[in-house]
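Slide 14.
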Amino acid sequence: MSMKSHLLGATCACFIASGFLTSAHAATWGAEVGIGMITPCPSFCGGPGGQSDFSFDGGEFSNSAFTSLSNFGGTGQGSASLSGPTILPVLGAEGFSGSNSRTDTNAVGMLGYTYSGAATTTISLDIVLDGERGGTTNPSDAWVRSNVAVILGNVNDFVTDYPTFIFEVVPLTPGLSVLGESNMSLDLNVGQQTKNGSISFTLNPGDEFFVWAGLEAGGIRNGFGDAFNTLSMSFSDDTGITASVIPVPAAVWLFGSGLIGLIGIARRKKA
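Slide 15: predicted structure.
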């Protein structure tokens, strides 16, 4: 068999192995960010002659994402990563609108966990939101809001819309239930500020659960929301809690699996 055929086989084995690794995850996970801009915005946004622009990054099985956008409508940037304590989501979002436009940035992260402690325990997920909201006196023209939920069970879909997730996916999926939620919004025109939230929940040995976190920041007609540093969270006690999957970039899985395949080929050739 030619070396080309050996490499093709190794490549195929690489993709197959990464596919099996993906299907073995106990919970769907991911990190995603998106920015949308639209103009003009007199009493509403868009319409005849309107312009729009979008930018996205990440998604299901991504452990980090970043994107930025700057044009006719303003500026925005968003980040999402599974890099906090116990690989919890860390999110950042900001959106600055022009005088006749709207800018909206969204960041989402979710990951599953398993509790392997020997006894029932009650802990909290402590949440910190830092940022600023202003540029307007109209409360509806600037926003920074966060939504975090702890869900008992295994989720099978990476969902980026909070209302859809809470009011449709969870109630309609057998075995899922909400252990707790935190919803926070920054105050208007008070400068840099910090909001703190907490979700208290009880876990039994063997429980599987996941954390869903979303952050939205933006404005309309010179309004802005700036929470790029950041939405972060931590467990009050992470004893016995492990991430259901350790997020490793797909390229690393492919390289590692391919390397194993090539080593196997080399050993067979030597034998």
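Speaker note: The CA atoms of residues 89 and 232 lie 7 Å apart.
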